[in-house]
Design a protein that fits this description.
single chain, 397 residues, alpha+beta, Nucleotidyltransferase, domain 5, 2 domains, 7-stranded antiparallel sheet, 20% strand
Length: 397
Amino acid sequence: MRRSFKFLLRPTSQQAAALAACLEDQRQMYNAALEHRRTAYHMAGVTVRYGDQSAELKHIRADDPGGQGRWSFSSQQATLRRLDKAFGAFFDRVKAGRTPGFPRFKGRGWFDTVTWPKDGDGCRWDSQPHHPAATHMRLQGIGHVRVHQHRRVLGTVKTISVKREGRRWFVVLSCDDVPAEPLPSTGAHVGLDMGVASLVTTSDGSHLTNPRHMQASADRRARAQRDLARKKRGSKRRRKAAARVAALHAKVRRQRLASAHKAALALVRNYDVIVHEDLRIANMTKRAAPRPDGDGGYLPNGGSAKSGLNTSILDAGWGVFLTVLAHKAESAGRELIAVNPANTSRMCSRCGHCAADNRLTQAEFRCTACGSSAHADVNAAVNILRAGLALREAAAA
């Protein structure tokens, strides 16, 4: 299996300045390469590709030894590949008829990662393995940087990325051949219904609480945002206020990820087969479509209510939870099945009758055909489990 390990870096002040300089030079290279492609196509109709720009790196480094020349050649190639990947995705969207989204120039706040494609080429993980105090990694042009390694790295380190999040620096190791850690069989199956009132409701009747981390910190974030709005653009105080806002959002992101890990681990430990809804979260959280009235105005479209629902869905972190659950299930040898969620909340799990009137309220389900009643989310989870087991049997047949 391929897995990533993320650790906090503890650079000195000089190393932090060097990391920032490396990031800035890589950003400028990305933007210059993008401008090169745009200009060549508009002025001469020439398509510039990754190979053409990579071949020019040698001359760029020779002309700027104190700037671009001090960083790893392979990391600069990775930056050019990143641009090439952005163009590839752009052309794929054009062919598919979707909104193209032409690659953009990266501002200072939109380029926060530098990648070294191979351990040992411009970087070295655990560069001082016998150091008695801490783990270190070596980066060309920066030196041996201390790493807060809170867990053991498994598998073979393939790529190394350094990422800036607010005022913190992290290293992300992408490793191959990570061994699986299978758990003993339990013989139990479960269906999961995703929600906002409860993050997950199982077919067994259990409810996993939705922590609502974003809502819990709403007052602090609002104060920090108002403080940021009062600062003069370009000032040092504004940069500090922006860092405080970013730190609050980063804390919410970490809390949400930690909650997802705990909830997913509990499910993986207790069940052999886990069935969940195949949700299209991006479609579910789109803005409400406008309703023109034909006279140049617009009719009410429930946009405020839809916006509140979108915020609640995103705060619950369904996507993060399902991603973590998939990784843990693969590592533990569990079976994960995604099913179409259509009508699972309207169908009676007892008699199979499907009608919108069955769902009386958000929490109450009463079948208009057989009269059975249950918690609406538990009823949906049972339907999800049955659909997943049917797919499993069909695949095995």
